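Could someone model protoporphyrin IX containing FE with this protein?
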Amino acid sequence: MHNLETKNHRIRILDHEPLTAKCRALEATGFVLLWAVCAIASAAETPVAQKYLPPPWPYHALLVSTGFVVLFAGMLAVRYMKNKRWWLKAHQSLALLGAFITLAGFATAVFMVRIYLGTFFVNEMHAFLGFTIAAMVVLTPILGFMQFRTKDKRVRLIHRWAGRITIVLMLTNIIGGWLIISSSIE
Ligand code: HEM
Ligand code: HEM
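Reply:
Sure, complex below.
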């Protein structure tokens, strides 16, 4: 009985109305605005960037950037592949893989900061955003699975926006990371 209900609910989620062009344009504008706000907020980190770079930073940068690319591909699967049978499987697998790689990159950052800078937390915007992103890549997949187990439509909406915000924050922090590197190398 429970299985049947879950299956019907899953089908309802997959069968939703396609977005109109106006709706998509509004969403894209919201996405860009959100990114701009995050980028401006994170620009504040540049003056306080460390002058000493912990040597393993390229491993950290590579892992989180790969995580971003995989999560972004997962988002594209939902937005543009919904006419294919496998979109949900692709989204789920890419999302879980991307979250795992990002968390590995996050763990690398915490360890490198602990070993080379002697603290668990560098008090700057990049680290605040980084810890927020780590929480988001755990919370978003939980919401992703939850939307099939509850009839509350808000979960689905919160999952979509949590996913979009995660992507935007990651892009912002990747740019912020390069700002730290360039200001330290000068
Ligand atoms: C989504 C992307 C990213 C996330 C989630 C992230 C996360 C973090 C976190 C949480 C820390 C601080 C760890 C602590 O205080 O314990 C950190 C430090 C650092 N990250 Fe990232 N990072 C990202 C992208 C990048 C990129 C692309 C680069 C380089 C190009 C970079 C370079 C650094 C460096 C050099 C540090 C240590 C020194 C410092 O904070 O001044 N990060 N990162
Ligand atoms: C970090 C992991 C995840 C991220 C970043 C993420 C991101 C997203 C985003 C951005 C969307 C909306 C796409 C759009 O229309 O703009 C979405 C939709 C969706 N996600 Fe995820 N997701 C993640 C994990 C999961 C997981 C584990 C599941 C479970 C199967 C899932 C199921 C779904 C479903 C069913 C939708 C479509 C909802 C709808 O059409 O309204 N997601 N996700």
